Every structure is written in structure tokens, then in C-alpha cells.
Fold:
Amino acid sequence: MELICPAGTPAAFHEAVDAGADAVYCGFRDETNARNFPGLNFSREELRESIAYAKRKGTQTFVALNTFMRAGSEEIWYKGAADAVALGADALILADFGLMAHVAEKYPQQRLHVSVQASASNPDAINFLVDAFNAQRVVLPRTLTIADIARIGKNIRCEMEVFVFGGLCVMAEGRCSLSSYATGKSPNMNGVCSPASHVRYRKDGGELVSELGEFTINRFPAGEAAGYPTLCKGRFDIADSNGYAFEDPVSLDVMGELEALKAAGVKALKIEGRQRGKAYVAEVVSTMKAALNSPPERRAPLLARLRSMSEGQKTTSGAYEKRWR
Amino acid sequence: MLIPPILSAPLHMIPIPLIERICRLMFGRIAKAHPGLFERLDEHREKRFAFLPTDLPLAFVVVPGKQEISVLRQPVDIVADAVTEAPLFLLLGLMEGRCDADALFFSRDLSVTGDMEAMLAMRNALDASNIDLQKDLAKLAGPFAPIARRVIGEVRDRALKDQMKPAGEAAAWN
Amino acid sequence: MTQTKKTSLTLGPVYYLWDAEKWRDFHFRIADEAPVDRVVIGETVCSKRQHFIEPHLADVVERLESAGKTVILSTLALVTLNRESKQIREMAEVSEHLLEANDLSALAILKDKPHTIGPLVNVYNAPTARLLAGRGAKRICLPPELPFSSVKEIVAEFPDIDFEVFAFGRMPLAISARCAHARSKGKIKDNCQFVCREDPDGLPVRTLDRQSFLALNGVQTVSHACQSLLGELDHLVEAGVRSFRLSPQDCDMVAVAKLHRAVLDEVVDADEGVAKLRQLYAAAPLANGFHHAKEGAVWVARTRSLQAAWPA
Structure:
């Protein structure tokens, strides 16, 4: 199985390549991708250099253009696609049908991957994208169990890529407006979830309070591991009790299920984290690569050390395991 | 892994104006070697960033666009758009992109307040810049260069030694 | 209002799990009294709930149709199971009614059959609308998140497609494989005992500082605030939007429909309409921030002041 690794900067890109990534995915420094964070991502020139470096090392580059085109400003996304193709991207990762149609028509030779943001969660949906846009790979939503994945694999006409480590969306990706409800900025339209511009941390007594827009998202007592101020991982009051209504601040780790994923027909394993630093990328990619090259019984201790880098310093196998639901 | 008093003591004794001049020297050097830093900071470059080492009685306030650094003795009321607090070796580690800021935040080793967008831009700009203090400062010139090199060298060596112990935080210094 | 074509009202599917009789009687009353042109019915949120309404489905369809309403059958918003796909396929094969797509799989199955697109499908721009129209979509309800600037752009490109906007109701913000509603009551999804039935208007989620924020509806998360575009109807009509969706809440939806009709017909002034709507649905504050490209939770007053107000 291929290991698909994140890069938010050319520095992280180099780390990922050097650590043994089979492919690195990244995006332009604008709203065309779902990690449109301040100071992050690639200029055209940086992508050109990075792709050249990757090619020398035999690593592929996937370019994410996985937000939804703003009506009337489609040119920004079309230009992104044109440049990524011209710069030699090995695949474009897309979510918007309009953009997929454009790419399929203009660049029929270009490999097209379906972003997790497209929320293609079943064989009918995936085959629709294969038939309509000649999609060659689908990144599956993190809402599926491994049994679901195995069943899907038997019934689709393209490759499957699944997230195995890193941030975990609790909600069906690409179909969530929680962020824009509180901040006016959404993953689909602006490429940001719970954006930094609307995040405030303040200390209240011994507690660290995180706020998003006007809403309190969490209060962390001193010493408790913290998480991102993401809405779906906040602590809320429901009826008479309070707690994590949707999900704890945890991140995803299904590396323990590698054999099952392989048996399910998964072609590529994806690591989340374009927003993370290059130190993270280097550590996670090299550890995962080592784990992939080790017999199953030797993997657990290798992977254990990644936990401390995770949100809330905890990990979960998420929806991949049915009980999570 | 706090900076032991032995190391912080000399800093107590160095007059603030001197520390400031050393910092400016370092900053000028880094700015020259890594122009991409400012491009990534973009609209945030004129903001005031405060860095408070939790193990030193000093505060560093930086306005990148103006190449302005002020060093203040703590405790003091800091006026800044964004404030980062962490032990000095972690702050230096972040500067070099050798630690992952998110992981340090999750583990509560690092705390941030104020303008998060500016802070994030700073974090990403630093992370992208491949700053290597040892290398960048090797060519440091001027009358204070030897002191600067010595202080940075000491802090870095010390941190490196401490950092080797736990596998934790991903903050492997090297 | 300058109208070249008549405006119409669509009653959306009931997203919540109501007792079957309540659900039936609600639709009977809509059939008899509400000035809506079409009604979308059928479970949209959770396939486990489907059997509740099935005994009454035929009666409701018949009553609505005899009242002259067009009936559209809703499909599931998140399809992951085999039986869920199969069900949509069977509906597409046997149903004489229009189906409404809420998920990609329905789009695949409904290709070249006339159908409608629900607000849960990501239509953010004209090329996407063109693609869907080319595959047989007759009416497209745009996502609640879409700002007016985008609505205008999309509608202007396709005067022939009937575009609809989400004009009333708590905003469907997210859907998950996990059931937060069941979890909050100590259950898991596979053995949920249908606890979501206890909350016919959603289970309130408040922040730790007791701010009203969201509501749980099974695997779906809706906003606490209720979207209302009553004050924006004139601009939407001017932009070419012809259809307005009212999403059922646990309130007098007949009165809500009458009020929207009255404002569209300029019998009731928009400001007065908004004031009346606040009384009709007092359970939640009104919001229209998405329309104005702001936070979905805020209310922008009709004076067009840029000052957006947060719900108290």
C-alpha cells in the first residue's frame, strides 16, 4: 500500500519525501484547498521546485484543489488546475463537480482523485464520479467501517485511499457548515474549519478557555491535554450534563488495522496534517513507513510514540470500528 | 527541562540594551537569510509578537516588518497582538521548526493568546524557513557577535542534552 | 415585486423523528390548509427510522395530492449501507413521484430521470448546477450556507431551472456516521432505542457558558437559530429565485406557510412578517447571516445596516 503524506510548506514536503513518502499532497496558498491557513501552502514557484525534488526521488505529488468554487470566481480554481497540470502534478484531488467536469474535459490525461470533501460514501456515488469524470481514485470518508470499505472495494471501478492517521472529522466531510455557522468561514467555501481568525484563548482562573466567534468551545483544566478549537470536538452542555457531545479531542489512528485494510483492497494510506509542522511530518512519515515495513506484531511499539503528538494526546480508530458510532 | 539557574544567571547580569542589540543582530541575520519569512507573514508582518520564555525573566517583543525587537524584564505588562509562552528551548525549537507547535499546545507545554491568525502565520512562516541558528549565526559579525554565539550555543547545547531524554513531544532537537 | 413567473412554496421533509400519528396529522393539515405548492416527504436523516412513517405514507401522499400539492419523495442524506443504496434504487425504479436527491448516490441512480436536488447536495456554483441539470435535475434547492452573491450568480446563468432557497427552518449543518443524540442519552447508534423521538424539535446543545448553540437530531446536527429569509424574499425574487423552502419545525407550519405566502404576495410587509414569525416560532431566534455572507447564527436587520446581531 502507498503512503500518502501531507505537506503545508516546501520544508515539510522535503521532509516527507526524505522520510519515504510514496506521494506527497499539498495545495496552493489560496482558497482553492481545504487547508487555507495563514502562512501555509505553496506558491507556484515553490510547487515547481517541490515537484522537481519529488520526481528526482521517485515520489509522486498530488495537488489538492478541494474546496467548492465560489460562484462567479470559478477562474481561480480553473487557474489552479491549469497550473497544477502544467507543473506536472501526478494527480489533482478534487471535490467540486463543476471543477471535476472542467478538469475531465480540459485535461483528459490528468489523473483525477476524488477528495474526501466530496463525501462519496458508497459504490453508487463513487461509480458516478468514475463514469462522469473518469476519477481514478477516491479518498473515502472517515464515516465508514472497514467492513463497509471492503464491500465498497468489491463494487467500484477505481482505487481506494483511506485516512489512517491524524485529524479526525466527526461529521461527513464536505457536508459540514458548523464552522460557518459560528464564524462565517467554512471548509467548503473558504478552506478553513474553525479558523484562527475567530479563535481566542483566554485564561479563566486555572482553566484555558477556547472560544470560536461568540461561542465557548471548551474549558481545559490545568494539566489536561488540549485540542484544536474545532466545533465538533468541543465540550458542551446537553440536558443536565456536559461533555464532548460529538467527539473528544482525539486524532485518528487505524494503523493497527493495516492487514484488514489491505485485505479490503485499499490501495493507499493517507496521513492527515498539512497544517502541522515539518517536525511532525518527518516523525510521523518515517514511523509509519517503518511500521509498514515491519511484521504486524512489531508495529504497535513503533506507533505508540506518535500518540503524544496527537490532539488531546489520544487516538481513536473512529468510524473504522463500528462501535464508535 | 527548565533552563537551570546556572544558565539563566548570566542573562540576568547582561544589561537589557546589550541583549536587545544581540537580538537585533540575530534577527537581521535571519531576516537576510530567509526572506520568505516575510512573504508568508504577509499582512501580519507589522503585528507585535511577544515571546515569553517561562524559564527566563525576560520577554521578547518582535515586530517583524519593522525589524524591531524589544527585550523587557519580566514581570512586565506586555502590549502585543499575539503572545506565546513556553520554555526557552522550545521557543528556539519552534523557531527552527524542530518541534511541532500543535503537539506542544496539546500537551500544554506551550500557550498562546491573542491574535491566533497572526500566531499561526508566524508559526508556519518559521516552519517553512529552515532556520538553523547555528548555521545562520555562524557568520554573525560585529562587536557583540562572540557573546551572541556563546549564549545561543550554550542554550542550544543545554536544550539538546535535555531533549535527548524523553521520546515525548516530537521535539527532537536534532 | 416584478414577477415574470409565479413564486411557489415547498415544504421540506420533516427532519426530526415525530410520532407517526403526529407526522400523519401534520401532513393532513398541510394538505388541507397550507398554501404550499409542493411537499417533500420521507425519512431523510436516518434509515433506521424509516418504518415509523411507512404505515401512513400512502394516506399522506393521497391526501396531499387530492389537495393539489405536488408530492416529492425524499432520499437519505448519508448513504453508507447496502440496503440504503438498494432502497433508493428501488424507489427510483417503481415510484411515480419525483425523487429528491440528498446524496451523491441518489444523483447516480436518478440520472436521466426527472428529479429535484435537496439542500444537502453541494451546489456552490453554476458549472455544478449545469452538470446536475444536464442529468435531469428539475429544481435545485441551494445549500443554506450559500451567500446571496452566489445565489444571484447561479440563478442568473440558468433562467430555465427552478432554483429554491432554504427560507425557513433550523439549518441542517452537519451529518455524521455517529449518533451524538443517542450518545448523549447513554445509547449507541446500533441500539439507540429511538431516543431522538423524545425531541421533536431537536435536543439543545449549549456551550459551557450556557449559550444556545446547536441542536441534535439523531445523526444530524442543526442550528439553534432558525434561518429566516422572510426579509430577503423581495431581493431573492428579483434575482430570479422562484421557489422557497420551509423546513418543518415543531410549530404551526400552516401559519408559517401562510405568512410566507402573504409576504410574497405583498399582503404583509416584510418587517411585520418577521415580527409575526418570531411569535409563531418563539423556540429559537431568527438568523439570516449565511445569506449576507456572515456567520450563519447572526441576524442582519432589514435596514441593511452592516451591524449583525448575535442571538441573545
